[in-house]
Description:
The protein is built from one helix and 13 strands; from the N terminus they run ββββββββαβββββ. By secondary structure, it is mainly β. The longest helix has 8 residues, at 72-79. It is elongated.
Amino acid sequence: MTTETAGAVEVPTWQLDPTHSSVEFSVKHMMITTVRGRFKTISATLTGDEDSPEQPTAEATIDAASIDTGTPDRDAHLRSADFFDVERFPQITFRSKRIEGNRPKQAGDKFKLVGDLTIRDVTREVVLDCQYEGQGKDPWGQTRAGFTFNTEVNREDWGLRWNQVLETGGVLVSNKVRVEGELQFIKRSA
């Protein structure tokens, strides 16, 4: 619930629980197999809920150096200037702009979250296909809410252009990247 203080409505804040959340990606390698990875260090905040009249907002930050594909050499290459250039651009950020469709109210509700994704200081609008997974109280009395999302982006739109042409045709790394997330948030007291 929201509370009113001197005419102002306090909007609830939800903090990401990183131990129960993940952001993963997949990309085609040599156009024949899919390589998967994840980012191990993420933080995010949601502001608003079903009782808040304002448009909810979401902000997320990913430590680009926390990329993990399970192969140290590949991870080092992805951290290099050929891809994320983590020395110069240590963070990937997302900031929501609006929700398209109905605001989620019950588990299973789907909606689109439109926002700005910034990678290597390049910002592009993306649309996340989201689903509200519901909420409940944990054994310690905290209210938690879950969401899933997915989207597909073209990595070249953010300047991640490194590739190699294959002798047999095609390229080593697909430009299309699928991104998926399972996110759990904890409601903070107002």
